[in-house]
Amino acid sequence: MYITLAIGVVLGCSLVCNFRQRARARRMREEARRAAVAAALERAAVERRLAESEERFEWYAEHTENVVFRMAVPAGNHTYLNRAAIAYYGCSREELLANPALALQVLHPDHHQEFFRQWESIVSGRGCTPTEKEFRAFAKGGEIRWMEPHVRVVNDAQGNPAALEGLVRDVTEQRRTAHALRDTEEHLRRAQEVARIGSWHYDRKADTLRCSAKTCQITGYPEDMEVAPPHMLALTHPEDRERVDAAWAGALTGTPLDLEFRILTADTGEERWVYNRSEAEFDGDGECVVVTGVLLDITDRKRLEETLIQSQKMEAVGLLAGGVAHDFNNVLSVIMGYAELASDRCAQGRSPRPEIGQILDATERARQLVRQIAAFNRKTETRREPVLLNGEIAAIGEVWRRVLPRAVRLEFSLAPGLRPVSADPVQMHQVLMNLANNAVDAMQGAGLLTVATENARFDAQRCACCGTPLRGDWVRVSVADTGGGISPERLGRIFDSFYTTKEEGQGTGLGLYMVREIVTAHGGHVLCHSVSGEGSRFEVLLPPLSGEALPSPAPAPESAVPRGGGETILLVEDEPELAEINAAFLETGGYRVVTASNGAAALSFYGKYWPEVAAVVSDLNMPGMPASEYLRCLYEVNPETRLLTVSGFFSADQSLGRVPSGKARFLGKPYTRDDLLRALGALLGGGSGAAD
Asked: How far apart, in whole angstroms, are the C-alpha atoms of residue 458 and residue 471?
């Protein structure tokens, strides 16, 4: 019984174990089946996504204008070419896929070597190496195009190169545009160089200023230097700085900058004249964001204008000369007459003092006439001083009355209490002379010339020439004639240089042009009102100085004439009579005098005895030796030479500008004994500058 039971138990356990094993096997088979299903589903999903990706890729590839390709490695055959590639090669897709050499044929021979080098690098596993970005290829029809490649290597699971994928862009038009832009920039650079025009661009928000090469050349800055606006403005000549700063401030608020001014170059400090024109751009809030402008070197034009100004001065001097000649002949007659009377008195044993006094008075009148002409011909820079135009007009009116044709009547209407102006008297004379000449020519020698002055005020009127508002106070000078007038079509051009309404050979066309240039430089305006058949009226408007009138200067006290203490003076004068007179002047003034008749003799003596010479009194016009050479040699002997230059030709600025060092004064001819002694006394006392 027990045996049977044991056998039953063993058989039961065996059956249970078999059942469990079969169940476990069933579960494993079920799990394997589910895993296989999941894997299949995953593969299907991946394949579906891959197919979708391939579909999207092909869609994009087929709709782009760029060449898209895939190439097997190392076989070298194309596995994919998009529609753009087929159109570019000009062959069928089947031909290109079957024959890879067809694709290579479009590559320009100059790039074959580089292609094979890159292919060898890819096949060997080194990948794409750096190469030129763009290459040339033959398009359909044989046209050469520039292409830009973008290529990558695709590796297999083992990391070996399996394919080469890429996109190739046609950049021919971009290259042509870039070349055209470079050509345009080069042409612009050359044009700016020829025309002496530079350009600049100011980004206000970034506070950066970009200048063209010509702008840098004009200003003296290196081309690679970043220039900020304050540095550029700092180049402005000190005398022009205030109005340039004001114009720049106006440009930032919308007023176009249109200005001529002087600069001192950054590299050499050379003075140049420039013309600057610029306009600003504003954002939606009204803030200035950009200012763009041009810079023109007008130095040569300004020098030409100076020459023209001098020419106009001489043209005016032609009218002035008649009156001066009349006055000078009168002076000479007085001198000659009183000299004869003095001689008669000496012969009779009587004192000639009264006649000598009259001779001295006459010579002073002659001196003033000479100075008037010399001042009119002055070539120095404009000198501003307070001027009462009524007095200047009255003075020049005396000349007009003597030289105007008898059939031309002259009338003045000078307003009392005329306000003073800051002006150069000589240039104001030139303006008045040019306007008078123009009026006389317009009347053909017969008519009424009227000159009037007044204090004027404008509220809304604008300048007819430039459109500038004329609001405020002005001093107005009017010159009117009763000539034939100016036609409307000519009225707009009368201030242009070289424009004239006169017959050929009858005028230069510079008179009215120089009137406008001078008046504009003084901060004023010139207006013209004309009616055909009735005449013309020119109005000069100048800004007045503050105050209603100029105070009358108190007469300067007559300074005592200094005397020497036996100092040795080297007198250099080539005119024997003047040498004798000047030596006598100096000796009576208490000096010991040594004379030399030319520059060579003066230098010879001075080289030997300069420690004993207290000062040199010398004319600048020395025969056989330029003044600059003479002065250079003089100061090489003694850099501390005290020099009194006298001249009837050079001005004070011209004379003292030739002095390289030391202390010097200038005395213009003619002069009196007291003038000479005062100038020499001031020199020996340490003064420096021009004598009256």
From this structure: 5
For 568-690, which CATH class?
alpha beta
Contact between residue 539 and residue 549 where contact means Cβ atoms under 8 Å apart: no
How many Å apart are CA 103 and CA 86, to the nearest integer? 10
CB 219 within 8 Å of CB 232:
yes
- Nearest Cα to Cα of residue 616 among 632, 596, 600: 596
Cβ-based neighbour number of residue 239 at 10 Å: 11
CA distance linking residue 394 with residue 372, whole number of Å: 15
Gyration radius from the chain CA atoms:
48
Q: Cα(92)–Cα(99) distance, rounded to whole angstroms? A: 11
Compute the distance between CA of residue 66 and CA of residue 655 in angstroms, rounded to an integer: 79
469: phi then psi, degrees, rounded to nearest 5: -60, 140
65-170 and 176-297 share one CATH topology? yes
Token pair of 18 as six digits: 């078999």
The backbone torsions φ and ψ at residue 155, rounded to the nearest 5 degrees and listed phi first, read -95, 155
* Cα 387-389-391 angle, rounded to 5 deg: 95
Strands (E), 513-641: 525-531, 535-542, 568-572, 592-596, 613-619
Per-residue pLDDT tens digits for 315-353: 555 555 555 555 566 566 667 766 777 777 787 788 877
pLDDT tens-digit readout, 148-197: 888 778 787 777 887 777 788 887 787 777 777 676 666 656 655 655 67
CA distance 29 to 23: 10
Please state the CATH superfamily assignment of the domain spanning residues 65-170 in this structure: PAS domain (3.30.450.20)
Domain range summary for the chain, segments of one domain joined by +:
35-60, 65-170, 176-297, 306-376, 385-459+472-542, 568-690
CATH architecture of the domain formed by 176-297: 2-Layer Sandwich (3.30)
pLDDT single digits (tens) 603-629: 889 888 889 999 999 887 777 777 778
User: What does pTM read for this prediction?
Assistant: 0.40
**Architecture (CATH level 2) of domain 385-459+472-542:** 2-Layer Sandwich (3.30)
What count of Cα atoms within 13 Å lies in the side-chain half-sphere of residue 479? 20
**Which of 576, 570, 603 is closest to 680 using CA atoms?**
570
Amino acid at 49: R
